[in-house]
Structure formats: structure tokens, C-alpha cells
Write a structure and sequence with these properties.
single chain, alpha/beta, TIM Barrel, 8-stranded parallel beta barrel, 12 helices, 8 strands, globular, binds phosphoenolpyruvate
Length: 254
């Protein structure tokens, strides 16, 4: 029923050393080569894992992404990693706009706009995250918050650039809290997001845009979420750290 690309993407965050990360990537790769997924699968890893994980993945089955990139092209920015550097590892995607980056590292809409531009310019596809806090939802401001995040960082893109954007709606109150948005709440927001993408880029582009849900997604709740008409998959934090859990979510597309 949904013709657009379906995706399950993992976001490992700051959890594993190099050896453990490479071992997990190998396990996911072997598991999915033995039992082919019905969706696109991406694992997004810390910078230090990228080059080594790229060597153990068959990216026709499991694509590789980073969790961030710099808002500057190159030069004297100690400790930063540019989009071009990410791309050179073999990675194809980058997560930008994650709420943890916005909250703890003060990434503003303006900074994210620069990061998105640099990622696209260097041939990376962007998984762009948006989502409201609990306080904003309780004030019924979730739609305006999400719209402002998209307006501020990605709705400036050309129609051609837009083809390289995947959106992820992640209500902050559902991330790592064990509290999932209900499938109806997630669907309501994703349908709204698709409608504002249609306002900006037209209905056809909106119908082709992959929009993910993220926030305490697990094997147990993925089937109900993915059954909704506008939910094209998930961005997975905690449950992407165990091959069996991650596979369980991927299998929700079967
Ligand atoms: C995330 O941070 O992208 C996320 C969805 O985390 P979790 O699945 O752990 O809630």
C-alpha cells in the first residue's frame, strides 16, 4: 500500500567502544543477509566506528550513517568532523537535528540548516529529526513546533535536494523513556508533516517522502506503528543496540 521507501534506522549514540560496535555491525549484517529485510536498513554510529563498520557491512543490505557532522566545511575546528570526512568513510547518511544535539549541544535551526547544506553538498542523505517536548504537547503546540523546526532548517531546500531528505518525528517525551507515542498520536503528526511537505514541495513529493517515527520503538509496538498509513518506519535508539531487538523491529515490515 505504501509505495515510498520504508526504513528502519538505528541510532547507537554514545554506548559502545570500537570492538563492541564492529561486533554488533557484523552480527546485524549476517542476520539480515540470512533473512533479507523488507525495508531499507541503516545503522548510524559514532564517528569513531564509521570506517571500521563500513568494512564489515554489505551496504546493499545495511547502509551506514553518522549521527552528526560539523556545520563548517573544513579548517581549524578542533574536534569537529566534516560531512566530507563522514562521506569518505563510506557512510551514506547522517542524522541531523536530533533532540539530544539540540538540547545538550545547543544546535539551533540556523546551525542545522548549515549542517544539512553541507551534508547534501557532500553526497550524504540526511535523516532530519523534529519533535516537541512534553510541555509543548501539553500546551497543544506540537504542530507549530515541528513546523518551525522544518521551516528553519530544511524547507529552504530545492525540490531536487529534498529527494535526499528522510524525516524522523521524535517526540522528546518518548525518547529513551519507555513511553511511546500511541500509534494514533504518531500517525496524526506524520500525516500533518506530510501535509506541510505537500504545501511546500507538492503532493507527489510528499507522497514520496519517507517519514519515520522515533521514541521507544520496540519489536512489540513496531507492527502497530508501521501499519499506519503515514508511518514509513522507525528511528531506533535503545532497541538498535541488540541485534535481536533491531531485527524484531525490521521484521515488523514482513
Ligand atoms: C532516538 O534517540 O532516536 C530514539 C528513538 O531513542 P529510543 O528508541 O531509545 O527512544
Amino acid at each position: 500500500k505504501k509505495m515510498r521507501k520504508k526504513i528502519v534506522a538505528g541510532n547507537w549514540k554514545m554506548n559502545m567502544n570500537l570492538q563492541d560496535g564492529v561486533a554488533l555491525a557484523k552480527e546485524i549484517n549476517e542476520t539480515l543477509k540470512a533473512d533479507k529485510p523488507n525495508c531499507g536498513v541503516i545503522i548510524c554510529t559514532p564517528f569513531i566506528h564509521l570506517a571500521s563498520v563500513a568494512q564489515v557491512l554489505d551496504q546493499n543490505v545495511v547502509a551506514l550513517g553518522a549521527e552528526n557532522c560539523a556545520d563548517k566545511e573544513k579548517g581549524a575546528y578542533t574536534g569537529e568532523v566534516s560531512a566530507e570526512m563522514v562521506k569518505s568513510t563510506g557512510a551514506q547518511y547522517v542524522i541531523l537535528g536530533h533532540s539530544e544535539r539540540r538540547q545538550y549541544y545547543h544546535e539551533t535551526a540556523e546551525i542545522l540548516k548549515d549542517k544539512v547544506q553541507l551534508a547534501l553538498k557532500n553526497g550524504l542523505k540526511v535523516i532530519f529529526c523534529c519533535g516537541e517536548t512534553l510541555e509543548e504537547r501539553e500546551a497543544n503546540k506540537q504542530n507549530e513546533v515541528v513546523k518551525a523546526e522544518l521551516d528553519g532548517s530544511v524547507f529552504n531546500l530545492s525540490a531536487e535536494e529534498w529527494k535526499n531528505i528522510v524525516l524522523a518525528y521524535e517526540p522528546i517525551w518518548a525518547i529513551g523513556t519507555g513511553k511511546t507515542a500511541t500509534a494514533d498520536q504518531a500517525e496524526e503528526m506524520l500525516a500533518y508533516i506530510r501535509s506541510i511537505v505537500a504545501d511546500k514541495y507538492g503532493k507527489e513529493a510528499a507522497d514520496d517522502t519517507t517519514i519515520l517515527y522515533g521514541g521507544s520503538c520496540k519489536p512489540g509496538n513496531a507492527p502497530e506503528l508501521f501499519a499506519k498509513p503515514d508511518i514509513d518506519g522507525g528511528l531506533i535508539g535503545g532497541a538498535s543496540l541488540k541485534a535481536a531487538d533491531f531485527k524484531g523491529i525490521i521484521d515488523a515490515w514482513k
